[in-house]
Amino acid sequence: MIRPDAPLLLEICDLHASVDDQPILHGVNLSIRAGEIHAVMGRNGSGKSTLSKVLAGHPAYRVSAGSVLYRGEDLLALDPEQRARRGVFLGFQYPVEIPGVSNLEFLRVATNARRLEQGHEELDTFAFEDLVRERLELVKMDPAFLERSVNEGFSGGEKKRNEILQMALLDPLVAILDETDSGLDIDALRIVAGGVNQLASPDNATLLITHYQRLLDVITPDYVHVMAAGRILRTGGKELALELEDRGYDWVDAELAALAQAPVEVG
Amino acid sequence: MAAPSLSSAVPAAVPTARPAAGAGSSRWGTALLEAVGLGPEAALEPARQRAWRGLAERPLPSRHDEAWRFTDTTAMAAIAPQLLAAGAAGPLALPPAAAGVVRIVLDGGEDPLAGVSLPAGIEAIPAEELEALRLQEAAAAGGGAGWGEPEAGGSWIGLLAAAVAPRLLALRVRGAVAPGLELVSDSGAAAGVLPLRVLLLLEPGAELELLQVHRAAGASLTAVLLEARIGAGAKLRHGLVAQGAAASVLLADLAVRQEPGSEYSFSSAVAGWALSRLQPRVLQGAGAATTRLRALQRCDQRQIADHHSQVRFDGPEGELDQLHKAIAAGAGRSVFNGAVEVPRAAQRTNAVQLSRSLLLSDRARIDTKPQLEIVADDVKCAHGATVTRLQQEELFYLQSRGIDAAAAGTLLLRGFCAEVLRELPAAAAVWQPLAMLLAEEAPRP
After folding, report:
1. How confident is the model at residue B39 (pLDDT cuts 50, 70, 90)?
2. Are A9 and A173 spatial neighbours (Cβ–Cβ below 8 Å)?
3. Is the CB of residue A61 less than 8 Å away from at least one CB of chain B?
């Protein structure tokens, strides 16, 4: 939902970042207002996942230039946990398995960290169980997964549902979903996308990072951005995703070559 | 026919020679023997005398001994070579035993069974019967050492405990015993050596849950020799929780023999000792038994935590499932040696051994060594060892959910510990093994 007067949630300005001294992002610009759903598409290695990791504060990524404002505040100055508590959520492409840590306990600790920041009371074990069982419905997840260790032995689809369950519990203002569709069969994709759609509201925003059009068949983006060589090369509406599906990414190379000749600001 | 007391008490030995030729001296063992003396008649006295002489020849292991190569015994040599006086620890502040658990306190002094009402199915074995059992087993072993007598050239820890323990606790278990049994020693701040000997005989089909707890806060050495015989079809679930302090040493030799169809599981949690060494040694006498070993040790500061396990299959179709975990922080040093012996007679053995260590500091050190000796050809034997740090990806995942770095680290450590701790007998809960391992507990007075 595009509303020009909606509050600006995320403002990425000329963001440069590297991992292991390898520059990956070369000046990303992106603004996201409340109520919007953005999709970032691009080939492998274009910098999509790096962008998501940088926004979430992964310690292996170093920002060398540029800024990111989250609701007017310097996001990059915050620790990863502070970002999460204030409402930035990253849905992982490869959710991490943590043996020996109960999923339920993990979800409760995380939920309470966010709730405290929001000025709500912490939930005790019982109140939390009620909440989590209600939210499980959203992703049609078997409650048995609560008793297991975090993501341990979960299938790809179960891990992604567990990510969306976390999103449902943490109630983020900006949700960045990194390749949430990868590794999902079509039924699981519908369930996960259904969860994302239900959580989208006029007050929050979603940034979908994806490789394929098929996620965008079930979640309709307001904006589609094409990323290449660490920048956003082009921005359009949902029809841009269809165009990519038709034409592939070859034209991107041509545009990149042209940019190399005469750098211009795009996006 | 139960004797009132298992062991005739050995009168307090008169110290004859002054020990302490200096810390680290190989005189330590000799000094201890001199201080203890050879008491008069006691249960298994002939075996004790042989152990006494055996120890005289091997006063203290050193890093020249292959089995002690990675384990510095300086902390041991610094312990006063004399027995801890009974009651020297003063009144013990022990948590109440869990419901349904019978506790026996071992302080090296009075009859440990005084005032204890043993659960139905457990009885003390009289001294003369014990000697008969020992002779019977020695004969079966072709004159070699057996139950009640550690081999002279075998485990040094066993030799030490057998040589200087003035008493022993010998119990026979029949049928399925519902209440758990808890054996507790706590040296408190007292100094000296506390040798403990336990013999446990599980008759065929018997079942028992046994928890050993050892605690120390001072410059003491707790030396344990536990010998268990698990009859055909019997089940022993055995746990050990041990919490030490900066100058305390724990040495425990656990010699277990299993008959076919028996199940033995042992899980341990050890932390805080200047030096700790656990030696679970399991023999499947005729194979066809199930052995499950779970161990967790943490070493911090300059502590050494050593775990030497040995499992031998002397018959076919035996099973072993072993997991050893270690956490090394500060300048701690963790040693694991896991021997698995599968001779030709042990066809169709199925053994899995895994060692997982967590290195939390640059100054900490971990030595881990699987030692598989497989002669039989039709067997499944798998082993693996990993040494890792706290995983950055795991930490980041937790942080990205609003959990701060310190809490995330604790959560990961708890997860690491949980896999072993959940296998401890129920009686372990009152000893708070997790808090002990995470060093969360307030220092004891």
Report:
1. low
2. yes
3. no
Distance CA B439, CA B445 (A): 15
Q: Is residue B301 part of a domain?
A: yes
Mean model confidence pLDDT for chain B: 88
Q: Tell whether A140 lies on the interface with B, counting CB pairs under 8 A.
A: no
- pLDDT value at residue B62: 82
User: Chain B residue with minimal CA distance to A167?
Assistant: B401
Give the 3-state secondary structure of residue B290: strand
* CB spacing of B402 vs A170 below 8 angstroms: yes
Q: Which of B325, B397, B412 to mutate to test the interface with A (most CBs of A within 10 A)?
A: B397
Residue B1 lies in a domain: no
Residue B23 has pLDDT above 50, yes or no: no
Residues 6+ apart with CB under 8 A from B377: B347
Give the residue with greater pLDDT, A185 vs B23. A185
Q: What is the 3-class SS of B314-351, one letter each residue?
A: CCCCCEEEEEEEEEECCCCEEEEEEEEEECCCCCCCEE
B255 part of a folded domain: yes
Q: Report the DSSP beta bridge partners of residue B237.
A: B209, B265
This prediction has a pTM of 0.82
Neighbours of A219 (CB within 10 A): 22
The one-letter amino acid at B94 = L
Q: Report if residue B383 sits inside a domain.
A: yes
The minimal CB distance from B403 to the residues A58, A81, A96 is found for: A81
Bridge partners (DSSP) of residue A98 are: A150
Domain residues for B204?
A: 24-437
What is the rounded distance in angstroms from the CA atom of residue A65 to the CA atom of residue A15?
Answer: 6
Q: Do B399 and A117 touch (CB under 8 A)?
A: no
pLDDT number for residue B135: 86
A198 near A37, Cβ under 8 Å?
Answer: no
- Report pLDDT digits (tens) over B344-361: 999 999 999 999 999 999
Whole-angstrom Cα distance, residue A44 to residue B328? 39
Q: What is the domain count for chain B? A: 1
Q: Is A154 on the interface with B (CB under 8 A)?
A: no
Q: Which residue of A has its CA nearest to B420?
A: A100
Tell me the per-residue pLDDT of A171-186, one tens digit each, with 9 for 90 and over: 999 999 999 888 888 8
